[in-house]
Design goal:
The protein is an alpha+beta fold. Helix content is 20%, strand content 37%.
Length: 123
């Protein structure tokens, strides 16, 4: 499995043509306590850069942009009752949705961990 990052602080793990999407630990730290997560509907077609989800916190509501084009195949139903999972486990158990990639070459435009860490260090 390979993990990629966006400048909007989303991460995506890709395995077998399906990407699991979430927000980074940096992003959840900026948002503060997460109070609600709006997830995309199953079967929804999403386009890279499109707002696919919304994370509400005590500070603000923030769009989560899909890093790739494809179709939503799964959502993290645990977040309906436990949105705070995004705070406590942002880069694993607090994932938001999965998408079957229709344009795998889009991954080439994303950052690896080292590039993302360097990007965040400059913020």
């Amino acid at each position: 499995m390979t993990r990629y990052f966006t400048k909007d602080h989303e991460w995506i793990d890709v395995a077998d043509g399906v990407g699991t999407v979430g927000i980074t630990d940096y992003a959840q730290g900026q948002l503060g306590d997460i109070t609600f997560v709006e997830l995309p509907s199953l079967g929804r077609d999403v386009t890279r850069g499109e707002a696919a989800s919304v994370v509400d916190s005590v500070k603000a509501a923030s769009d989560v942009y899909t890093p790739v084009t494809g179709t939503v195949t799964d959502i993290n139903g645990s977040l309906e009752g436990e949105p705070e999972l995004v705070n406590t486990d942002a880069e694993k158990g607090g994932w938001l949705f999965r998408v079957r990639l229709s344009e795998p070459a889009e991954l080439d435009a994303l950052m690896d961990k080292a590039a993302y860490d360097e990007y965040v260090a400059g913020l």
